[in-house]
Amino acid sequence: MAERADSRIWGHRFAFLALAFLILAAQLVPLNFRPSGFAGPDVLLAATLVWVIRKPAFLPVLAVAAVYLLADLILLRPPGLWAALVVLLTEVLRRQHRELRNLPLLAEWGTVAVGIVVISVAYRLILALVLAPLPPLGLTIMQAAATIVVYPLVVLVAHYIFGVRRVAPGEVGARGQRL
Amino acid sequence: MAQDKNSDEFAGPLRRLLVGVLVLALIGLFALWRIDSPRVERMRAAAIDTFVPSFDWAMAPITGTANLISDFQSYQQLRTQNQELRRELQRMSAWKEAAVQLRQENAKLLDLNNVSLDPQLTVITGVVITDSGSPFRQSVLINVGSRDGIIDGWPTMDGIGLVGRIAGVGQETSRVMLLTDTSSRIPVTVQPSGQRAILAGDNTLNPPLEFLEDDTLVRPGDRVVSSGDGGVFPADLLVGQVALGTDGQLRVRLAADYQRLEFLRVLRSQPHEPIPDPDNLLAPEAEFFGPAGINPAAATTAEVGDG
Asked: Is the CB of residue B52 less than 8 Å away from at least one CB of chain A?
C-alpha cells in the first residue's frame, strides 16, 4: 500500500515532519531564562490536529507517535504519556474526518477544543494518580486555552502555505479510491 | 489490489492493532519511567544528546534574528545607556578601591590564621545551547558533558551568582536545573544573621526561602549564600539578596542574570572527605592494653556502624 502511494503524499508527510522539527527548534531557542507566568500555545499540537482533520493521509500514526515521543523527551515531560494521549486523540479525529469535513469551521473548532481539554484533563489526572509531580495548574489551563485560540490561525497557515485543504466532495485519490 | 480501492475498510483491524500496540508501548514507557525513573532519565539524556545538537542549524537563524532585534533596540538607547554606564563606573571605581583594600586585608588575615582554602574548586565553562522549551520547566542545556568530566549535582554559576545545578549528563551535553525550577531545593545561609534556610524554586523569578528558623532576624537586603549543608554544594557561593515579596513572603532576588545566560561555569565540587572514625584522626591505630571487652575504640566503631 505504502509503496504504491504517490510521491506527493510522501512530500507532504516530510513537510509535516520538517514543520514539527522547526516548531520544536523554535521552542528551544535560548532567549529568555526568566520564568514567565505566561504559557504560550502548543503550536505543535494545533498543527497536528489541523493535519489529521484536514488531510489524514499526510499524517501517519507512526509519525505522530515518533514526533511526540521526541517532544516528550526534549521538553522534559514524563516520557510517553502525552504522546499516547495525542495518538489516541488523533485516532478519534481521524475516524471522524469524513463527518467533520461537512461541518463549518466553528463545529470543527469546537470538536478540537473538546479534544484538547479532554486530553489535558486526562494528562493531569493520570499524573495525579501515579503521584508524579504535576505542572502548575494555571499554566496548563493557559496553554490549553491558547492552543484552542490559535487553532484557526494554524488552519489558515496550513491551508495557504502547506496546501492542507479539506477534501472536496467527490474528490478521489490517484487510484480512484474514496478519500 | 483490493486494498488500494478502499484501504480504510480493509486495513482497519490491522491498523487498529498497530495503534493499540503503539499506545500500549508509549504507556509502558511512561510506567517504566514512573517505576525506574533514573534509568529512563539516562535514556532521555542520551536522546537529547543525540538529537538536540542537530537542531542547531535550525535554531541559528532564529537566534540570530532575535539578537539582531535586541541589538537594534539597544542601539536606540545607546546614548542614555552610555551616560548611565559612566555614572555607574564612577561609583564602581570607589567600590573597586574598597574591594582591593579588603582583599589585601582578607589575605593578610587568612595568612595570619593559617587558613587553607579548598584548592580543588576549579571550573569548566560551557555555552548554553537550548532552554527547556516549555513554560513548565526551568532548565538549560549546556555543551559540556560526561566527556568533559561533568558529574550530576555539580553547582553552576554565571559570572556572579549561583544559577543552578547539573541534573542529567549526556556524552556531550548536560542539563542545568535552574534555581527557579519547581523541583529545585538548595540549602542556603542568610548573612549576617547566619540563619539556615532552603531556597525552593516555584517557577517565579524570585524563589521563596523556606524553613527559616527565625524570620525576624532576616531583613530584606541580606546576602544569601549557599550553606554547604548536606554536602550537596560547596559553601559560600553567592545566591542573591533577600527581598520581601508582595505576599509578605521572604524571597531571594537572584544575583545571577537570568535575563541572559550565555556562558555558565560548572564548579568541580569535590565531596568532603567523610570522617568515619574520629578517634583514628587523633591517634591512628591506638594500641590498647587491657581486656578486649572494654576496648573503647571497638565500642565507638560498633556504634557508628549501627547509626
From this structure: yes
Mean pLDDT for the stretch of residues B63-75: 80
Grid cell in block for residue B79:
546614548
B3, B18, B135: residue with CB nearest A61: B18
Query: What is the C-alpha separation between B206 and B186, in angstroms, rounded?
Result: 14
Residue written as cell 499506545? B23
Most confident of A93-102, A158-167, B2-11, B147-156: B147-156
What is the distance in angstroms between the Cα of A48 and the nearest Cα belonging to chain B? 16
Distance CA A123, CA A142 (A): 15
> pLDDT per residue over A35-75, tens digit each?
777 788 899 999 999 999 888 888 889 999 999 999 999 88
ipTM: 0.85
Q: Give the pLDDT score at A147.
A: 93
Inter-chain residue contact A34 with B47, CB threshold 8 Å: no
Residue A136 touches partner B, C-beta closer than 8 Å:
yes
